[in-house]
């Protein structure tokens, strides 16, 4: 079980953001969503970014993953300065090194689970047999082997999110980003998704950066960054569920 699994977290910083600022302008109103935010993320760890709705979590994740650009500041990921990359190089970086799991799954309605997972692997230029093997292995890893020929409309919400995770995982990314991956799911399916993310960090050594306000995720994270109003308020290692259960009140 996950509690006794050895951690693969290291002290190597794989993602580093410095003085990241983001302001959105809407009409005449300018609002700064990220206030010169600085953080380091360690390789192989599951880092959780928590905080109330609207505090800037999704914007931060989008900037750290190269989906959006910051107005100022730097993001270094796997030794690359993301702001220094051309649009094409950034797209290639994201394709080769990152996976992204979205709150709303972002699956293609007309593709089977297997085809969804195979699609980015084909874009990566992998050979057909490698694409098939990686896709099948990833779907089996998230428990969807028997359902890989089904369309999204034939899958439950929890299964759709597991397809999305398999799609990200099959790329064998060093960095896996997940934005509120459990918020559209019931408790049981949310727990399955949390366990999978936890296992990915443990067994694959993948750096997982997850945004969530789901309190169940806290105990599965190696580190929790609490955000409020575009700033990081606290940075701590959460107690394990076992420690919490045995601690006197
Ligand atoms: P969270 O994920 O913590 O709920 P977000 O990062 O989505 O927060 O949003 C933070 C703030 O930035 C919110 O007030 C939101 O309305 C605003 N915002 C996010 N994206 C945009 C955008 N593209 N244009 C204008 N405002 C935005
Ligand atoms: Mg959000």
Plain-language structure description:
One of its GO terms (molecular function) is ATP binding. Keywords: ATP-binding, Nucleotide-binding, Transport. InterPro entries: AAA+_ATPase, ABC_transporter-like_ATP-bd, ABC_transporter-like_CS, ABC_transpr_LolD-like, MacB-like_ATP-bd, P-loop_NTPase. This is ABC transporter ATP-binding protein. Residues 15-247 form the ABC transporter domain. With 249 residues, the protein is an alpha/beta fold. The chain has a domain at 43-62 and 95-240: P-loop containing nucleotide triphosphate hydrolases (Rossmann fold). Helix content is 35%, strand content 27%. It is built from 8 helices and 10 strands. A 6-stranded mixed beta sheet has the order 6-7-8-3-9-10, with helices on both faces. Strands 2-1-4-5 form a 4-stranded antiparallel beta sheet, covered by helices on one side. A hairpin with a 2-residue loop joins strand 9 and strand 10 (231-236). The longest helix is centred in the last third of the chain and has 18 residues, at 187-204. The chain is globular, with a radius of gyration of 18 Å. Magnesium ion is lined by residues 57-58, 179-180.
Q: Can you summarize this structure?
A:
By secondary structure, the protein is α/β, with parallel strands linked by helices.
Unreliable parts:
1-7, 243-249
As a percent range, the share of helical residues equals: 25-40%
Which fold name fills CATH's third level, the topology of one domain?
Answer: Rossmann fold
Separation of the first and last Cα atoms = 26 Å
Order of helices and strands: EEEHEEHEHHHEHEHEEH
Under the CATH scheme, the architecture of one domain is 3-Layer(aba) Sandwich
Bound small-molecule species:
adenosine-5'-diphosphate, magnesium ion
Highest-level CATH class of one domain = Alpha Beta
Name the strands of the widest sheet in spatial order: 6-7-8-3-9-10
Pairing-aware structural class of the strands and helices? alpha/beta
Strand percent estimate: 25-35%
Average per-residue pLDDT, rounded, comes to 90
List how many beta strands DSSP finds. Answer: 10
Given the structure, what is the number of helices?
8
Evaluate the radius of gyration.
18 Å
CATH superfamily of one domain: P-loop containing nucleotide triphosphate hydrolases
């Amino acid at each position: 079980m996950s509690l006794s699994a050895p951690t693969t977290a290291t002290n190597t910083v794989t993602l580093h953001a410095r003085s990241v600022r983001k302001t959105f302008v809407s009409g005449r109103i300018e609002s700064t969503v990220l206030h010169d935010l600085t953080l380091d993320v360690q390789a192989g760890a599951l880092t959780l970014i928590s905080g109330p709705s609207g505090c800037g979590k999704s914007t931060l994740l989008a900037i750290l993953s190269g989906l959006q650009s910051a107005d100022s500041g730097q993001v270094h990921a796997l030794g690359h300065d993301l702001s220094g990359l051309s649009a094409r190089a950034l797209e290639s970086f994201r394709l080769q090194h990152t996976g992204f799991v979205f709150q709303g799954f972002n699956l293609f309605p007309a593709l089977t689970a297997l085809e969804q997972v195979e699609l980015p692997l084909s874009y990566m230029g992998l050979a057909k047999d490698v694409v098939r093997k990686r896709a099948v292995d990833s779907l089996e890893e998230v428990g969807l082997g028997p359902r890989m020929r089904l369309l999204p409309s034939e899958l439950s919400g929890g299964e759709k999110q597991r397809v999305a995770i398999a799609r990200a995982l099959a790329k064998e990314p060093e960095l896996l980003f997940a934005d509120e991956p459990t918020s559209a799911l019931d408790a049981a399916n949310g727990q399955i998704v949390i366990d999978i993310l936890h296992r990915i960090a443990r067994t694959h050594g993948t750096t997982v950066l997850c945004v969530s306000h789901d309190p169940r995720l806290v105990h599965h994270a190696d580190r929790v960054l609490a955000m409020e109003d575009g700033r990081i308020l606290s940075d701590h290692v959460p107690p394990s569920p076992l420690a919490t259960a045995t601690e006197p009140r």
